[in-house]
Amino acid sequence: MKKFALLSVILAVILLTSCMSAPRKATLSTTDPFENIHISFVGSPDKGYMQTDLSECRDIVKENFRFSCHNDGHLSNGQVAVVTALKIRQNDIQVLRYQKEYIVTGVDFYPEKLEDYEKDDINKSIWKYADDYIKTHILDFPMEYCSRLDRTGWSKSGAFDYHYNYHDIVMLYSVHKTDKAKNTYFIIFDLENNITCTQDMESSYPAPMKKGESDIGQTYVVVGVSGIRATSNKIFKADTPATVYKVFTTQKEAEKFCTYGGEYNTFREMFV
After folding, report:
1. Are 174 and 184 in contact (CB under 8 A)?
2. Is the confidence at residue 20, as pLDDT, over 90?
3. What distances in angstroms separate CA 42 from CA 27, 49, 134, 228, 243, one per listed residue?
4. Residue 47: inside a domain, yes or no?
5. Last residue within a domain, chosen from 103, 129, 158
6. Against a cut of 0.85, is the pTM above it?
């Protein structure tokens, strides 16, 4: 009898220890659906939306809860986003609803200055467009030649060699005072073209050249983008692809074109 009583005590102790050490099974009503969830926001100003990453959440959350965000698709940085976790239990139609507030970050915004922003990506895209445009249209560019003669028409005859080079000299960023979506970003390129006549030709164009004669032309190519935005880590982006606006024979005229005035503030930064 004593052995039986002792065995009963041992079994009871084992059972109690097992119950104490076993983890409590998670239930819907005791689960925090926001535990280990990663909420982020992306998009453009007034069009930002929520993204959820449930990869580190427990299975009970992944399988039972759905997440939504108030005003999703219309968010901007700095706003308070109310995120709701919702579960409707089919058995008793009980609704489980949890809410949590997040400050919106990561949604693009419209920068109002040039300083402290990363512009390498947007500069590279403008450089590429400028390069393609210049290769295709250089013979059509009006230029100021060292001879002070107009060689543009003569150069189109094809009886010459030409070697050109160009470099960026200044960027101008025009910020609209009320509608930042109209912000524009320009790069002005200083282009030099060395031409050498390879054949004497009769020409109706003014200032024809003789074989072996050379001249140097200079012009300024303006390439710009509009709808300038920036990410939360301050990288410039553009809504539109690069567009060539105009070619000018003087830098002063080129900069005047990029400086709107009136409803715009224009910021200027030299390339070094």
Report:
1. yes
2. no
3. 33, 6, 36, 16, 26
4. yes
5. 103
6. no
